[in-house]
Design brief:
This protein is α+β, with helices and mostly antiparallel strands. It has ten helices and 21 strands. Strands 2-1-11-10-9 form a five-stranded antiparallel sheet, sandwiched between helices. A hairpin with a 2-residue loop joins strand 10 and strand 11. The longest helix has about 35 residues. About 40% of the residues are buried.
């Protein structure tokens, strides 16, 4: 008898081990498949040929990706890094940590870098104080490297503390693959005593085009006032004894060398170095539809090379010419949308529609009648397996995942569909106690 009991235990253990192995195998396959599908393709449209290492174009509001080329490859970005420094300054001002008219005396490291005439700079004088606003303007308009370091010291107390704070901010934005060492985008060794401890002198800031799009979108959404500064074409910087004439390095601004009448560009930031090439984070608001474009690694054969602006113009024109900005009105319903289950309601299910107006860029030839949607209920509103009755008409009860087989959709957050709030199309009253009792009874048989 003991022998058979022992044999039975061994057989059960053997079967369980096989089951665990098979389940783990299937789960592993599933995980690999999800991970692979969440990545962007190397290029989303081979018909557009851009002479850059990487690029992306996104809707500034929804984060919809209209074009991508090598968009998830991390690359040096040089002075485009100053967008993160600007974000940190704006955050500090909003919290009250800094004030625009507050005077700052640059550290010796910041002052020394500012005197390097081989770099973009406004010269900061030893022992002289400057307002936060003037240093912020110099950083965004003229890409002043010493000014960016002075701001970093004001925000973080030191260059190292600022970098640590900025890295945490990137993680909050969902950016986990970037490298960040300096507030101005110079290599670690180029900032002298301000370099990040423990990192090599040749360590430099690296972001993917997608990362830079996320940062740019976050900057514009959280602090739209940044555009009031990035659109300034020319400004004087008062350094105490004389003034520096600053012309914006963004030559696509109206009145500058590569402005295009059809593309009213009003930001954001250039970046240039031997390793990064010519880079440009741009934004344009055409017909009320704002785009953000990023190009990394364009040609830079001389200071007069305009390749990054020409490639940006191609990318912006591609988006506006090949897509239709489509508005989906509140209350819109979609084909093949599943109804959501209702718990203890007079009706077993409830249909849903769009809870508020939203927008999607559709490729030319694709119409909104081709859109379909999957409804996903808000589990916090569920009781057992359905939305708890009663429900009001127009009540937000979950989300719609909107897509179309006619066009692949991509978003900065990794979604492959437009996500929007879903509302009930009618009211559902709670069933009376007798109906609920009868249903409970019949479910037992």
């Amino acid at each position: 008898m003991e022998f058979f009991k022992s044999l039975k235990k061994q057989v059960i253990a053997f079967i369980a081990a096989i089951a665990v192995f098979l389940i783990a195998g299937f789960c592993g396959v599933g995980q690999q498949s999800v991970s692979a599908s969440s990545s962007l393709p190397t290029t989303t449209d081979s018909s557009l040929s851009l002479d850059v290492k990487a690029a992306i174009a996104v809707d500034a509001n929804t984060g919809q990706i209209l074009y991508a080329k090598n968009a998830e490859q991390t690359l040096p970005v040089a002075s485009m890094s100053k967008l993160l420094t600007a974000y940190m300054v704006l955050k500090a001002v909003k919290s009250g940590k800094l004030k625009w008219n507050q005077k700052i005396t640059p550290s010796s490291a910041a002052q020394k870098v500012s005197q390097d005439t081989s770099l973009s700079n406004v010269p900061l004088k030893e022992g002289t104080s400057y307002t936060v606003r003037s240093l912020y303007q110099a950083t965004l308009i003229y890409s002043a490297n010493g000014a960016a370091m002075a701001l970093a010291d004001a925000v973080g107390g030191s260059q190292k503390n600022f970098v640590d704070m900025a890295r945490k901010e990137l993680k909050k934005m969902g950016i986990t693959d970037a490298e960040f060492y300096t507030a101005n985008g110079l290599s670690n060794g180029e900032v002298g005593d301000g370099k990040y401890p423990g990192a090599s002198d040749d360590a430099e800031n690296k972001f993917s085009a997608k990362d830079m799009a996320i940062l740019s979108q976050k900057l514009i959404q959280d602090y739209p006032e940044v555009l009031k500064t990035t659109k300034i074409t020319r400004l004087e910087f008062d350094n105490g004894t004389d003034k520096t004439q600053m012309e914006n390095w963004n030559w696509m601004l109206p009145g500058l060398a590569k402005a295009y009448t059809e593309l009213p560009v009003d930001g954001l930031k250039t970046g240039t170095s031997d390793s990064a090439g010519a880079c440009f984070a741009a934004t344009v608001n055409k017909d009320g539809h704002r785009l953000i474009t990023i190009v990394l690694g364009a040609k830079h054969e001389s200071q007069e090379d305009v390749s990054r602006f020409e490639e940006t113009q191609k990318l912006m024109s591609y988006c506006y010419n090949n897509y239709t900005y489509t508005t989906l009105a509140k209350g819109t319903t979609f084909k093949n949308t599943n109804a959501l289950p209702v718990h203890n309601g007079k009706d077993y299910t409830v249909s849903v529609s769009l809870a508020k107006k939203t927008n999607v860029w559709l490729k030319n030839g694709v119409s909104k009648s081709q859109l379909t949607a999957k409804a996903v209920g808000n589990k916090k509103l569920y009781k057992k397996a359905g939305l708890e009755a009663p429900l009001k008409k127009g009540q937000t009860v979950g989300t719609l995942q909107i897509s179309t087989s006619a066009q692949k959709l991509y978003y900065l957050n990794g979604d492959t569909y437009l996500k929007a709030d879903a509302q009930t199309t009618k009211a559902v009253e709670k069933a009376n106690i007798f109906v609920i009792g009868w249903r409970t009874l019949t479910s037992l048989f």
